[in-house]
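Supplementary notes (optional reading)

For those who missed the lab, this is the record we used. Protein: Urea transport system ATP-binding protein. Length: 248 residues.
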Amino acid sequence: GPETETLLYLDGVSVSFDGFKALNELSLIIQAGEMRAIIGPNGAGKTTMMDVVTGKTRPDTGTIYFDGNVDLTKLDEASIAELGIGRKFQKPTVFQHHTVWDNLELALAGRRGTFAALFRREGSSERERIEELLGIIRLGELRDMEAANLSHGQKQWLEIGMLLAQEPKLLLVDEPAAGMTDAETEATADLLKEIAKEKSVVVVEHDMTFVRALGVKVTVLHEGSVLSEGTIDHVSEDPRVIEVYLGR
Ligand code: ADP
């Protein structure tokens, strides 16, 4: 069978806020090269899960292994980012008064001077990489446009391109389709599928149509741990999942 390698392993991770368990012994494995969708009702712990992986929140108990034996719970946010974990928040934070091209150039330059620069892709000049990124994010034709003039969806894609410029091994994406038109939502699913050919991607999402379009393994979180896992058809027929969603 195909070789699989664990990229991210959350092992019994718990986080409490004032005695409330946002994550409750959460265990989760993401394979290298995998795209995974994480769903779950409000308050299920999805954001907190991304917060503990990126070092924004430190777990009370549990271990988070990344890329071998590196324990992320011992590292700060900057070190975790340097190891190759990129996070896309819902709100795009592009440089509004710079062009699409310049935004990508700035993102590439931002990598310089960090130790991650040692691992730059060989043989690919900066211009070529920017061209490549423009192709992936479908903004080639809009390279000279000021970011401020892009649509909401296009800004999201630009920010994804800027994250890719950091050459992450794992990309965490928070509700990429939120606020998008149907056409943009469809394009975003295609774009993420293309990115997932090169990287591991974890997508936190509410939009079931979008999750279905991704066609990847789904993890359902509830009360800070995994309620169900499998294909979208499998989890949506799981009685525990139905109960949790209909109970609201
Ligand atoms: P989701 O992203 O699935 O909606 P969250 O991870 O945001 O869920 O939240 C899980 C629970 O933890 C929620 O009940 C939320 O109110 C609580 N929570 C999250 N972050 C904090 C915080 N910084 N302080 C207090 N409570 C928090």
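If you only remember one thing from this example: Residues 17, 22, 40, 42-48 surround adenosine-5'-diphosphate (CB under 6 Å).
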